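Problem: given the chain below (307 residues), write out its structure.
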Amino acid sequence: MSNRDSDGILDLNQLRTFLAVHRAGSVTAGARLVGLSQPTVTTQLQALEKRLGYRLFERLPRGVVSTAAAVELAARVAGPVDALDGIAGRAAPAEPVPQPPVRLAGPAELLAAQALPALAPLIARGVRLTVTAGLSDDLLTGLRAGHYDLIVSTVRPRGRALVAEPLVDEEFVLVAAPELAERIDTARLRAEGPAALTGLPLISYSADLPILRRYWRHVFGVRLTAEPSMVVADLRAITATVAAGAGISVLPRYLCAAELAAGTVVPLLEPDDPPINTGFLVRRPGTASRPHIDLVYDHLRAAGRTW
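Solution.
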């Protein structure tokens, strides 16, 4: 099937309309961005899909989501289309068009403790946010599919479909409640390693002890083979559980900083080279003309330098 007009050139207006809907996540919002009626936008999208020979959007109860092919197309055409619009000096709509919400996603704890408080001042500037919490691998998949505009990821994305920038380094610390810490021979822990912790309950984010295993490997140089006494998929809940004396765990320092300062949890070790995990701010290419996405992106980057 041919994907060209009779003169061999794709319709620029259809591409412009496609980009507006892709960026807005909604046919209605995209129509406002390009100053067209919703039926006209729908007709243009259908015509473009027919020319290209593949589907661009999947309809959701609210809005649309770009297919993988649409994400790739947007990455290819956004720069040239935006450049042409800039040269042509396209007139702005007579009235300001409300920006659609910025779809932000990331780990629940990092969003709650750092990202969302940093973004609070933007709400007064008219920025709207739709926030989703989840695991980094799942969120990266969703970002590639167009479900999100920006994500904070504790996993560096592979390939060139996404653009990632280091945002923050998480330092991990081995902690316990003071009463439990008093039962641990810290001198033996420093000298002999995890043998001094044998028999103590382990509180973990998941059954395979990912953060604890990493700490054991990095600091002690051994493989952790114990079973967790409690599994709870929320590091904030783990912090509260450790403070209550249920057991020991490894937590990001930023997340338990208040408890460390208050003395409700204490570090069992302060190694010279603690485990570090880098968080990345990730976006798809082709979203440069969404000012609120850029604003959230730049605000998070600036805030990350203070975390």
